[in-house]
Amino acid sequence: MVGSKSKVTVRTLQEMKRSGERIAMVTAYDATMARIVEAGGVDVVLVGDSLGMVIQGLDTTLPVTLDEMIYHCRAVARGLKHAHLVGDLPFLSYQTGPEDAMRSAGRLLKEGGCESVKLEGGEEMAPTVARLVTVGIPVMGHVGLTPQSVHAMGGFRVQGKDDASAERILRGARALCDAGAYAVVLEGIPLTLAARVTAEISVPTIGIGAGPHCDGQVLVIHDLLGFFDELRPKFVKRYDELGERARSAVSAYVAEVRSGEFPTREHSFGAAPPRIAAPTPGSEPEPDPPRKAYGPTGC
Ligand code: KIV
Predict the structure, then answer these.
(1) pLDDT value, residue 1
(2) Which of 52, 175, 176, 250, CA to CA, is 20 to 30 A from 270?
């Protein structure tokens, strides 16, 4: 999809599974990051409720509200042209029944600009998925380590390690697919289980901590870029250490402010009326440079 610049739709993603082309998905939470990840060539951008942890500083995703999700989805939608935009349904915006799910999902599409929604859960969510699909709302499922069930799981723990749990995940993925989900996220499960699910269901699997045999992969952008230090799960590959680089950039700025090295004339506006202007050390003020499209307007 990278070079073609055509709009990525749920059909594109299903075609990618059929042709064996891997799907690249990441999270984003604002327009600037959405532009960056799209320029990087991702197929799918997820506004994950992980924003509770990486943006809001919470310990879990549970307190994130639907209004907060809509706010971030709307910002991300403004930054995208080609990638498919998925919004997470936050905790308790859909578990209370298919009609509530429809209202919540509808708001993510109408107000947030999303093109599909993601919800967590397996077999128990199949009727809800079917209801959403019936009214034309594409749904991505999510099984395995489902962060909205953190308390039931006893922490963010790998799932599917025993027979019963692996069976439940397999049945869940099948049920979501049968109900009409267009893709299923597999999070925090053994790679052999992910390979089995991927081989069995007809829609793409998107893995996170689920090994290399999924049809696609997703990472939280703060993990991928090395911004987030609170948790460092084994499955995360950090492609940069932007947190460290941002800290050094900020300390360079602080040092230059303290020493007076910043700002220079280059970053200043020159000509105040001579009657008012205070004398400055050094040469006469230079005329203001031509105004750029972005920046202060001289007040
Ligand atoms: O909330 C999120 O970012 C997610 C992904 C990690 C799959 O659900």
Answers:
(1) 46
(2) 250
Give the separation between CA 180 and CA 109, rounded to whole angstroms: 18
Mutate to test the pocket of ligand 1, among 49, 91, 148, 223 (most ligand atoms within 8 A of CB): 49
Q: What Å distances lie between residue 241 and 37, 47, 56, 208, 248, CA to CA?
A: 16, 22, 21, 20, 11
Whole-number Å distance between alpha carbons of 30 and 9? 21
Torsion (CA) 97, 98, 102, 104 in degrees, nearest 10: 20
17 vs 11: CA distance, rounded Å: 10
Collapsed DSSP state (helix, strand, coil) of residue 216: strand
Give the residues of the chain that fall short of pLDDT 70: 1-4, 281-299
Q: Is the CB of 217 under 6 A from ligand 1?
A: no
**Cα radius of gyration (the chain):** 24
Whole-number Cα distances in Å, 203 to 5, 20, 139, 183, 184? 23, 12, 11, 5, 7
pLDDT tens per residue, range 138-161: 999 999 999 999 999 999 999 999
Q: Which atom of ligand 1 is nearest to the CA of 46?
A: 3
Q: Is 98 in the pocket of ligand 1 (CB under 6 A)?
A: no
Element (H, E) at 1: none
What is the rounded CA–CA span in Å between residue 165 and residue 10? Answer: 29
Q: What domains appear along the chain, each with residue ranges and CATH number?
A: 10-246 (3.20.20.60)
- DSSP H or E stretch at residue 214: none
> Are the beta carbons of 226 and 244 closer than 8 angstroms?
yes
Place of tokens 């099984």: 143
Q: What tokens were used for 278? A: 């205070």
Nearest-angstrom CA–CA distance, 289 and 266: 9
- DSSP letter assigned to residue 121: B
Distances (CA, A) of 93 to 139, 187, 215, 233, 242: 14, 21, 28, 27, 34
